[in-house]
Amino acid sequence: MIRRAQALTQQQISESRDLQSLSKLAQIYTEINDTPHLTWTLEQLTRLLPNAGELRLKLAMTYAAADDKSRTYELLLKMVNQGYSYDLSKEPGFEKVRGTRVWDYVLESFARNAKSYGEGKVAFELPKGDTLFESIAWDPKRKQFLVGSVREGKIHLADNNGKLSDFISADAENGLMAVFGLAVDSAHDRLYVISDGVPHFQGFNADMVGKAGLFEFTLSNGKFLHKYMLPTETAHILSSIATDGKGGVYVADGVNQQIFRLDGGELKLMLGNSTLSGIRGLTVTPDGKTMYFSDVALGIFGVDLTKGAPFNVAYNSQKLVLGGIDSLYWYNGTLNAVQSGMEPQRVLRLKLSDDGHAIVSAMPLDAAQPAFDAPTTGTVVGDDLYFIANSQKELYSNLGVLTDAAALEPVRVFRTNLRFAWSDKGVDTTPAAAPAVSAPSSEQREAMLKTPPKGVVNPPAAAPANEPAKH
Fold it and tell me: Are 364 and 257 members of one domain?
């Protein structure tokens, strides 16, 4: 295998679009210290994954190892312009390029990007404990928050001071498991919950493995109404949920890269493609006509729900990073992203083109706030976005074991004003403003959705936007 890897030419590597094979090649070239081949491979990987900051940083280290100051500085300065922040002052991979004025400028620029920005604040805290709160929603009629616990399989009510009261608990009737997402449809007095059978749930047993579903309750009193389970031939984990305010409910499986719509009393697959890396954020415009979803590595895509047709959301990848988005929200014609997989972690407002198919400007709302530690899902309340700022999921092993109980903290619910710097144009990210870049073209990104691999379906035509989903 090593001999075959070493025989590959730069052109052969640059023509590959197989991420798995390229990643394996990068591992081989790293192990045998083949810098030229490693450089070509990392260059192609960064072309295919323009939002992967750690990958770009590794490429810069590879340039530095070859004492190629010019390309090292050029790449790092591009990352500065994209908003990244890394502390490279003691990073051994850059020893050969230190000691210049340009290097000092790079360090200073990264440090500026690391400074806290924005006027958001911690709105309240939820009690410290082994609860693993991963979701929050807002009931506008009763003016109260709802929070979901992965550990308990429970939904609590919370006031503006973080005081909790029980609302819905897992029992034999509803069959709730780990709660990963909440969505409120106030107009229809409905609360929707996505729940998964994972070891993190304290009531987990072998019968729950691979099970996942959507659970429907009466919002006003918590009465259990229905549950819609996905077939168990394939193990599922639902990670995102959105409603359109017209009765439409959508959920995403971020492991199998599928999006389902509640239709006719069941969850029907409307979109799926295994070439995606991980669906996280999910939001629907108030008119029910357009869905947007984020992929942790590939950025943001859209779906025309009136036609069942996915589309590429174009942007200038030289000025904007859209990787690491954990949740996504629609507000007054803009998309707002909680970007936990970015350095620094931040909340970003994205202004769309008139047709909604391009991002024309970006404005950070809050970045590098001291309260941020793996921020996750939230809920829009008026002009504010409330979200869990420190999810603490890193304290649990893959087997659901709490590894360090002493490290648990109160759960911080952060409030970002979505109208912050509303008149500020932000960074111009229109695709036309971008120079020739190495990112996948709009046609290539769209093909990721339109030509799924064998066994994965394209989205069927959606119901008319003015028709509520039939439950």
Answer: yes
Question: The pTM is what?
Answer: 0.89
Distance, first Cα to last Cα, the chain: 54
By the 10 Å C-beta count (0-12 exposed, 13-18 middle, 19+ buried), 171 is classed as exposed
In a domain, 6, yes or no: yes
Q: Has residue 468 been placed in a domain?
A: no
> What is the tally of structural domains in the chain?
2
Say yes or no: 58 and 127 in one domain. Answer: no
Contact call for residues 109 and 77 (beta carbons, < 8 A):
yes
Nearest to 144 by CA among 127, 129, 164, 128: 164
Range of the domain at 188: 121-450
Query: Is residue 158 domain-shared with residue 104, that is, in the same domain?
Result: no
Decide: 106 and 76 in contact? Cβ < 8 Å: yes
List the pLDDT tens digit at each of the 471 positions of the chain.
Answer: 899 999 999 999 999 999 889 999 999 999 999 999 999 999 999 999 989 999 999 999 999 999 999 999 999 999 999 999 999 999 999 999 999 999 999 999 999 999 999 999 999 999 999 999 999 999 999 999 999 999 999 999 999 999 999 999 999 999 999 999 999 999 999 999 999 999 999 999 999 999 999 999 999 999 999 999 999 889 999 999 999 978 999 999 999 999 999 999 999 999 988 888 899 999 999 999 999 999 998 999 999 999 989 999 999 988 999 999 999 999 999 999 999 999 999 999 999 999 999 999 999 999 999 999 999 999 999 999 999 999 999 999 999 999 999 999 999 999 999 999 999 989 999 986 444 333 444 554 454 454 333 323 232 222 222 332 333
162 and 300 assigned to the same domain: yes
In whole angstroms, how far apart are CA 431 and each of 314, 353, 358?
Answer: 6, 11, 7
Query: 95 and 83 in one domain?
Result: yes
Which string of DSSP letters, residue by residue, matches 74-92?
Answer: HHHHHHHHTT-----TT-G
In a domain, 368, yes or no: yes
Looking at the structure, do residues 187 and 100 belong to the same domain, yes or no?
no
Residue 458 lies in a domain: no
